[in-house]
Structures are given as C-alpha cells and as structure tokens.
Design goal:
about 170 residues, mainly alpha, 6 helices, about 80% helix
Length: about 170
C-alpha cells in the first residue's frame, strides 16, 4: 500500500512539509502495520518454539530472521513513500518561490532597495524550505524500528528460556 501513496497530492505545510499533520497521521498509520507484522511474527515464533519437538528451536530461530525481512521491507517502503510525498511538496513550494524570485528579478530595478530586499527575503525563505528534512526518519523512528525487530527475537528467547538456561549450565 505505501508506494501508491507517494503519487497523490496532499495539503501539507508548505514551509516544512515533514511536520504536517497529514504526514504525522500517515506515518502513524503505516507504522501501525509494521507493529502488527512484527507482533504476528513474534506470536508465530512463540507458538512454534512452544512445541517440544526436537530441532524445533532451529525453525524458531529461522522464523525470527524470516520475520525480520518482511518487517524491514515494510518499514523501508513506508519511509520511501513518506519521503516521496514530502519531497514532492517541497519541490512544489521551491518552484513557486523560484518563479516569484525570477519575476521580481526581471522586473526590478537593481537600484530599488525595496525590490532587492523582497528578493533577498524570498531567497532566504527558499533556502530555509530547501534545508528542511525530506523524511520522517530520525533517531526516534530508527529506535522504534529496532524495537519492532526485537519482538520476534524476544518471543523466541522467552519460548526457549528453559533450553537456554540448560545450555548455560
């Protein structure tokens, strides 16, 4: 679902699109599915590891790593879609600012102080918009993703705690 989301137009805060309400809502909605996917694999790992069949531990460990692949793909797909939305909105704003700057520049007399100040203010605004982040990915998002990856691993460890304690002794 995330890749098509990047093709739509959204009403975002023009000067800092990544901090728009819509982006926050989409980010929470998409990351909820990553949590659901991680919980699904954690439950499956716990269920598999709870069977007391010889060799099932290896299958549980395999399931942990298999669970990480779709969770990682979903997370990356979410981040790419959100980044596409933000980047598109930023470029739309930057193009509008560039058009205004260009129009003022061609019409203004270089000796006109007010026109030159208006051009400088627009150029400063252009630079500020250009410097804003392009994605919702930050330290907090990265740590949340690592926590999501740990769910299947923790389920495997909890389901095999007795075997792990035996191996340590």
């Amino acid at each position: 679902m995330p890749p098509p989301l990047g093709r739509y137009q959204y009403r975002l805060y023009e000067l800092d699109p990544v901090n728009s309400k819509v982006i926050g809502h989409l980010s929470r909605m998409l990351n909820t599915w990553v949590y659901v996917l991680a919980a699904y694999f954690a439950f499956g790992t716990c269920l598999t590891a709870s069977f007391r069949t010889r060799g099932i531990e290896w299958f549980g460990a395999f399931l942990v790593f298999v669970g990480w692949i779709p969770t990682s793909v979903q997370f990356i797909s979410n981040q790419v879609a959100l980044s596409t939305i933000v980047t598109t909105a930023k470029w739309q704003t930057l193009n509008e600012l560039q058009a205004k700057i260009s129009k003022l520049h061609t019409e203004a007399n270089p000796a006109d102080k007010e026109a030159m100040e208006a051009i400088n203010r627009l150029m400063d605004l252009h630079d500020r918009v250009r410097a804003t982040r392009n994605s919702t990915l930050n330290l907090r998002t990265g740590l949340n993703f690592l926590n999501q990856l740990m769910l299947p691993f923790l389920a495997f460890l909890l389901a095999n705690v007795d075997r792990l304690l035996e191996a340590v002794r």
